From TrEMBL:
SUPFAM superfamilies: Metallo-hydrolase/oxidoreductase
Protein name as catalogued: Glyoxylase-like metal-dependent hydrolase (Beta-lactamase superfamily II)
Keywords of the record: Hydrolase
Species assigned in the record: Caldimonas thermodepolymerans
Lineage: Bacteria, Pseudomonadati, Pseudomonadota, Betaproteobacteria, Burkholderiales
GO molecular function, one term: hydrolase activity
Length: 351
């Protein structure tokens, strides 16, 4: 546990649910944990006791990626953890593969509806049919324009043209739209939708005032900072200020809120964690400014400034997106200027 984590409270300690099983973390709220084939090796999913149209059952929040292991884990949950009741709906916080990957399978298996923001629904449909930010020719060219020019890396990014669709092969044909401020009746309790930006197009977190529980998705994580990236589909994007403003929208929630994150363990200390994340990005922006004062920098030049460890290709694509996001926040905020070199690479220097 790092120093910042010591300032948070973990009411369940080191306990985590076993694969295919659940752990109750609040009345009517069960924690499911699924594996992921990345350095970030798990995702937390949630079961909420529910009733719709006179039928008792469960609402699933987030799905895991499409693979045989995740399907098998869900089948064990269905057999042992649902008290013989059906899944009544599937809520997805946002369009990233670990959250929406199995939505098509879950909704078909249980003949129920997907609930998600319209923006993320459509982004997921585009991604499942082509690619979105993670690979292919467009992503390779975009990252090359920001300094990732070594032939091996460019070739590997170009070859990942089916990356998103490999984990999200299909998206349900129909959905129910979630919007900021919507209040959902889930099992007789009111859960309010809180939109967030910067990490995904229109991320939806859910807050229950009766329980003081926040299903934070990826907007607030206890151990790592949420990825905030610029990708090729929106090459002049400026997501970091959007993300920081979204964090501030969570600050009015009670200090004793139990945060149920998509990665890491449930924790209390929301206000402290929001402060930590602001401090983290303030420090990274200061580091980027200092590097750009020393010499004009591309995003690739900034990678060792922001990340002090060796990165694999999967991590490098996200790291490049993060580096561009920090540079763009300073550029579009008027503190840096951007120039394109004769080599076609964008570099940033003090304005």
């Amino acid at each position: 546990m790092n120093e910042l984590e010591h300032r948070l409270q973990y009411p369940h300690g080191e306990r985590i649910p076993a694969p295919g099983h659940t752990l109750e973390v609040a009345p009517g709220v069960r924690w499911v944990r699924m594996g992921l084939p990345f350095a970030l090796d798990h995702i937390n999913l949630w079961l909420l006791r529910d009733e719709q149209d006179g039928r008792a059952g469960w609402t699933v929040v987030d799905c895991g990626i499409t693979d045989d292991a995740t399907r098998a884990a869900w089948e064990r949950v269905f057999e042992h953890e649902l008290d013989g009741l059906p899944v009544l709906r599937v809520i997805v916080t946002h369009m990233h593969p670990d959250h929406i990957g199995l939505a098509h399978w879950l909704t078909e298996r249980w003949q129920c509806r997907l609930w998600i923001s319209a923006t993320d629904f459509n982004a997921a449909r585009v991604g499942s049919q082509t690619t979105t930010g993670y690979g292919g020719e467009s992503a390779a060219s975009f990252f090359a324009s920001h300094g990732l020019t070594d032939p091996d890396s460019v070739a590997k990014v170009r070859a990942r043209s089916n990356y998103y669709a490999s984990m999200v092969p299909r998206v349900p044909a129909q959905y129910r739209r979630l919007m900021d401020g919507d209040v959902l009746d889930i099992g007789g309790r009111a859960w309010r939708c809180i939109s967030g930006y910067g990490h995904a197009p229109e991320h939806i977190s859910l807050y229950c005032d009766e329980l003081h529980v926040l299903l934070s998705g990826d907007m607030v994580l206890p151990r790592i900072s949420t990825n905030v990236s610029v990708f090729d589909m929106e090459p002049e994007g400026n997501p970091l200020p959007l993300y920081l403003a979204s964090l501030d929208r969570l600050s009015p929630l009670p200090e004793d809120t139990l945060v149920l994150p998509a990665h890491g363990r449930p924790f209390r200390g929301l206000h402290e964690r929001v402060r930590q994340l602001h401090d983290h990005h303030d420090a990274r922006l200061a580091d980027v400014m200092q590097a750009c004062r020393a010499a004009p920098c591309s995003a690739a030049d900034i990678l060792p400034v922001l990340f002090h460890r060796k990165l694999d290709l999967h991590q490098t694509t996200f790291a490049m997106g993060e580096a561009i996001a920090h540079l763009h926040a300073l550029w579009l905020g008027g503190r840096l200027k951007r120039t394109a070199g004769s080599d076609g690479v964008y570099r940033f220097a003090p304005a």
